Amino acid sequence: MSINGRVLLLNQTYEPLGTVGVARAIVMLFKNTVSVEEWDGDRVLRTPREEYPVPSVVRRRTYVNVRRRRESAGKNRVRIYIRDQFRCQYCGERKNPVELTLDHILPRSRGGTGSPVNVVTACIACNQRKGSRTPEEARMPLLTTQTALRTKLERVVLCHYAEARPEWKKYLFGYEDTATLKRA
Ligand SMILES: [Zn+2]
Does pLDDT of 119 surpass 60? Predict the structure, then answer.
């Protein structure tokens, strides 16, 4: 287990909150802010002096209200790229993250927000071509729909990580996210 591994973080109510790095998860354990739901097999994180068993799923001991955290998710570049499967949503090309940018569908200069529903992955060329126009004005139709963008971003991102983590699945697919459903 490298220090770059991810740990699934659950709310006290078992709602998935996202992932944290292994080191941060171990610090949270030491601070007693989380308890371990699943260990990552018998993997350990080695430091020069110690070995720490590595958790795979941890759960907060206190409830955290996630509404604000969800709303700021649009600022997280990688989450948007994962949601859009690293494809430019104008030309459809799949690119490396360094060749991608975030495009505001309704440009910020015209009142567009940073909400995940207004932000898509775009390659540099398409982003420059579109400029500060709407897709309609630029005659660059989006390959996605607002409905698709409304898909729960957190869930898509977690499922992306969970492909390699079978022990996460029961937490991700068993949880009914009623708070999100009500807002949708
Ligand atoms: Zn493009």
Answer: yes
